[in-house]
Amino acid sequence: MKEWMGKIRTLSLFSLMVLLLSACGKENLTTFIPKGYGAEESLKVITISTIVMAVVFIVVMVIFIYVVWKFRQKKGEENVIPKQVEGNKTLEIVWTVIPILLLIIIAVPTILVTYDLADQSEIDDSITINVTGKQFWWHFEYANEEIQTSQDLYIPVGEKVYLKMLSSDVVHSFWVPALSGKMDVNPDNENTMYIQAHEEGVYWGKCAEFCGDSHSLMDFKIIAVSKEEYAQWVEDLQNVNKDVQPETTTAQEGQAIFEQSCIGCHAIDNTPSAGPNLSNFGDRTTIAGVLEHNEEELVEWIMDPNSKKPGNGMLGAPYLQNKGEITQDDAEKIAEYLMQLKPSEITPNSAQ
Fold it and tell me: Domain named Cytochrome oxidase subunit II transmembrane region profile: which ranges (predicted)?
């Protein structure tokens, strides 16, 4: 009895933990509250599959319980063998046809939705963005607008936005649960998908393919804004001038240090770069996709990025190889400079 009570307590505690953890998460990071066409279609497929599986489970369990009860060993009938159904053609046909029908019910809508979401008939007339997955961050190049950003992807509400995806290292997977399903991002072959947001907002994205030490920290955001705000944001990014002097003396000193030590990997205009593009760094709401957006966190990131995101590409930066090349004071100046890089008033905080 004590053993059973212990198991019941353990099960109760586990169930409570599952219940509590199921409430944890971020807004717009769920498939079950779709905010885009792709997510809506994916949810339909998930619902159909779940209903079919639930029905199969219930029917099988009912039959199982019935058989166990009806044909249990009874006192005085230890040697009685129930009637055997092996070779019964009717039963053989039933349990062969039913699974086929169930598979068809699941397969048909799945195939239709898969081909629908892979449709590229409107790609020439739509916004096209080249997405590059890296360890452990995302780069976005707006093909027609000739602008580049990292970590934050801006899109206009109600329009199809096509994403052409490649990886620069290992296999990643692009997933924004509230807007669409997953798509693998491979080093060798380009995959294409489109996303479409129904309403303004900030939608969190994840890498859904294990890709290294900081896979779980490879977050990004899609910011859906009105068409007018999107056009203004694009114009602001197109007119970024890296030679503009910051307002404060400390930030100016930070700019000079940045241009000596960091510009080799990062860009603050629309030129290609090995590391994340920092043109609109001051407009973001996170650092490295996961840290709070403030100068203290940024200084810690500059001085010791491995403690925040193990295995990230920043570890190869020359200033980290040559200890002391950038001091704490230098990092504070760089942080103040980067926080002033705000080319646009259209920020994630302004999205409704």
Answer: 23-121
